[in-house]
Amino acid sequence: MDDRAEHGGPRVPQQRRPGPPGEPAALRFDVLGPVRARRGEEQLATGSPQQRALLAALLLREGRTATAAELIDALWGEDPPSQALAAVRTYASRLRKALDPRVLVSESGGYAVRGLGDGALDLAVAQDLAADAEKARAAGDLGRAREVLNRALGLWDGEALAGVPGPYAEAQRVRLEEWRLGLLEARLDMDLEQGCHAEAVSELTALTAAHPLRERLRELLMLALYRSGRQAEALAVYADTRRLLAEELGVDPRAGLRELQRRILQADPELAEPSAPAEQPTVAQVRPAQLPATVPDFTGRSSFVRELSEVLAAASGPGGGDGTGRVMAVSALAGIGGVGKTTLAVHIAHRARSAFPDGQLYVDLQGAGARAADPETVLGSFLRALGTPDSAVPDSLAERAALYRSVLDGRRVLVLLDNARDAAQIRPLLPGTEGCAALVTSRVRMVDLAGAHLVDLDVMSPDEALALFTRIVGEERVASEREAALDVVAACGFLPLAIRIAASRLAARRTWTVSVLAAKLADERRRLDELQAGDLAVKATFELGYGALEPAQARAFRLLGLADGPDVSLAAAAAVLDLPPEETEDLLESLVDTSLLESAAPGRYRYHDLVRLYARACAERDEEPAAAGAPAGQRGTEAAMSRLLDFYLATATGVYAIERPGERVLDHLSRGSYPGLEFADRGRALDWLFAEASGLLAAVQQAGTAGMLRRAADLLLAAVDLGESGSGSRQYVRAATAVVTAAQRTGDPYAEGRARLMHSHILGVSGQFAESDREAAAALKLGLAAGDPVVCAQAPNQQGILALYTGRHAEAERHLTEALAAFRADRNSPGEASALCNLSRVHLATGRIDSAVSLARQGVTLYERDDTGMALRLANGKYALGLALTSAGESALALEALTDALGMFQDARQQLWHGMTLFRLAELHLADDAPARAAACAEQALAVLHGIGGEWRRANVLTALGRGLHGVGQLDRARVCWQEALAAFEALKSPEAADVRSLLASAPVG
Asked: Which of 114, 291, 510, 901 stands 20 to 30 A from 448 (CA)?
């Protein structure tokens, strides 16, 4: 019996038969795993292994009849039992009763399975999906092809025909496994075509370990490693393959593999060409539409609109055979603040939307402010808007820029880069591919932006300025006072922003005439003089709008400009203004209406950078002393910033309490006068914390007065997740450093100690152990001077961890014993558990395995004792317990503990500990003599830890990866990993270097 299909698997056509109303649920069969039969959700008995072998043989016959002789040969081969025919009849009879007499039919002395409905056999479903994937790939839709192939591969449930005896089943098992691997190779090939190189390495490492002689998998692994920047490992894979083939089969690698090695050695640029990244298999391609709303009263600028529209058309239009058209267009608009650059760019972008059907991206680069937007941050936002999941966004600017260009390849997207600082800021943000276009606005003329179409935007002509004024104010009011209207726009210097503000002021006051407004603008101190005053002209324009505000609006305008964050949420704004959210929203929306504030997103607001500076000047000039109840001598500005700090501290404390319930640190945090938000669940709490990271840490940096320093230091403690996660560690370090500097200036050991403690913690997370140790020691000295129980316990705990990492075990034990005593003195049960778990690791490092297990179990018991749901802290305990159990040889218990920890760290968004737990799982698999699984876990750890954790942690993971690869026979690649690890350890002067040297010395050379 040879039911070989044309394309790699046995082909089973679907046979349909109509059923009468009320018919029982349809039968379904599985052969891509254990042979099973179901009616609806009911599992049917399929009998003995030989009976299942008969069922499988019939299912794979494509509805054709199998004779008794063929079935006997399928079940027993050349040595059937004497009663084989009777046994076949018995099996068929039992199956007919269990299934349906109309399904298993007898004819011509044999049997057949007939009348199955669509999707009745998992193999047939997989075949249809594979065919669909092939069509999608041929049509160029790689995203759909990958998604469909993944669905097909997901139908396998272990080994096909598992546990089914007989020569026919064995032959089909081999054929189906070969087909599955072919599908898997096709999907991995598409992964690499779409730029998912780093993600594919882990899977390919495991597959090459499981199928060492399969050259196509080796070829894909070499390409994935090369495109991930790991050229030495890619060449080592070839060396391993050549040696293995020679030893096992006596042959050389096939031509394709040899050619790939040659191209890698020559650094063939075509091998590293970026390609479009993978779409998410379950999510449709994202089409961003980020353009701000265009103003309905856009006026004039017709020549600029026509000119820029033609440039965009060149990018979006069809390309000619001579290479013209379909080029990436860059247009840069330059001019002073308030001249209408953004308004013009947004208007043109909206007109061109239909020419860019794949979406429009927008960002305010804040180039005129003190803190221009980082291109790295902007690229992360753009990538997420284009559908890239957070886990796939790289860390470095270069990698993000490359992925961004890859994502845009083949798409027609318009990018509006507003308010740029200079050409250097925007170069990484340019699409760089045909069919896309970028519009850039800036206060500076970007003569150093190669290939850009430069436009200098001047003030409006008198006719355009008057037309804009008229559209806002109304034709009736202007027609009778045309000369006065000309005086108004002339006094505004024909600057669009000034005209809009003045006209809005007049439109809001029906009792005023145009002449009244003109008379108010006659004072030269309020008149715009663009040629001579520069930014002062803009300030004079803002003064017009500010002077027209009601008192409550003016106060909101002044105070909200004090916060340093890129934008402000409605809840944070309510804290600054000390008003209910509803009243705050009404005020902010009224400011948006007068163009003094922008609505960044629902519930979020931001200033134009120049408007923010003006608002701060107004606050310094106009803000009165604080209301009753505020500290003596405190101005309204200080009280507003104090409320903002209180709001962030109270809300972050609530998030900390959800993440770490029962933690004594909560009792030692300052309590402000302004309440925070409350959250119903952990996910929303963490969403708030990470969304508010920039504003929260900016508030910490601004808290430079003696009255706010302690609360700022406490906010660093409460928001520690921002530093630990890796996503906000840079800004977190800047904030901690700012608090240290301010505390030193004011002589506050309490605030300085806590800020140094948190600075030490984040330095340790990033692998800067020496610097972290110095900060921890300084923090402890300050904590003792201030009598701070938090620092007095956490600082020696941190010192103990650092001493452990650097091999100073006696010192580590001394520090941790001190920390344990301090935690117990403070009745800090979670802290005590942390110190116990850390002591467990010291005992483990010094060979005291039994006591290490005991200490870790004590720590876990403390975490679990009160059932407080401390998932994150419990994860740390499980992590330590898993390490101890691994060394104790308790593999099953260690696997359970580490797997629990892994899930908890993932849920808490703790990327560092997620990666480190994968590394520990790799070590566990090595101890359990499972090198393939170890290598897979180590590869995943490298991917998760990319850009965080420091070189020491990366070197440890590379050491484990090398051991796993060595265990599966990939000797040359293992040496490359060890050599890279050794270089890192030697640079750090780490004692682990000696162990790696021993591995290299003892490893055979391939």
From this structure: 291
